Structure of Ribosome biogenesis regulatory protein:
Amino acid sequence: MAACSIEDVLAKAEREEAEKLKSISVHKELELEFDPGNLFAFDKNPPNTREFRKQNKDEFLRSLARDNTQLLINELWKLPTERVEEVIVAKLPEPTTRLPREKPVPKPRPSTKWEEFAKLKGIQKKKKTNLVWDDVHKEWKRRWGYKRANDDTKEWLIEVPETADPNEDQFSKRIKAKKERVAKNELNRLRNIARGQKIKVPGVGLAPTDQQSKTELGKAIHVAKHSTASVGKFQGNLPKEKVPKNMGKKRKFEPLIGDFSAEKRKQLDLLNIMDSKKPRIDITKAVNKQMREEDRQSGFQKRKSPGKKGRKGNFSGKGKGKGKKGGPGGGSSGGSNKGGPGGGNNRKPRKKQGKR
């Protein structure tokens, strides 16, 4: 290792110290454009390509970033400052550079039907307090929610009204009325959303359209019939009424819990079919198809070939010649049994009666 002189070591230490304590004044040919509100500094000076090629790239970029950051900090010190909890804070002005948004600006929420009515009539919403006085427990309680004041669901005794049926359950009636109110509020909420998005809300059964199609009318009739207590069991059919298709059929899905062996077997069979090189052939289906094709060909040949002309009837013999035993219409000795439509008749011939 070559010996280093003292002068070289001291020079190197001075360079490192000067690198750490650089001057705050930076010279640029073109002044930077600043946006203190967004803490931006725009450098329009072209980079020195010669120094970029000679020096290390990382050191060159680090030095350039350091100079621009120093100029931005110098610009921040020109702003008015104040002391907050032993810390000097600069007051940033309004930003001048418009930054793009990640998502579009949210649209204002469309007003509901009640809000439009209140605005038309000049009705202003009054804010109610959260706490109200409970006369039963003699204390302040919340107006809504759990442990609210004057909670009628906790009553163990309900007075039956004079006009009501004395045998009617008032507790179940109250629960049913509450469910109906909740369902009505949910329906109104969905209607407000649909009206804000300009979507038509369909009715139950037959949709309110200008001109109903045959399918829609059939669906409306089906819904009207099945809306009775007997679910349409005793409802008669209209003349020339057809049964609507795809009514009352529900899709069947595999259970999400339980035994998955059937699903596993189906998936494995599908993978085996996809992985096999030879195509899978259904023998029964192929045989049936071949038989139908043969029947169709034979039927076509029969229709194409001309039919034989002849007399209709059961004839056991050929022609009108005299037979030794049977004569015309005699037995098998008069001719062959294979010809004619009645050739397969095996009845015994009658005995010929002679003259006495």
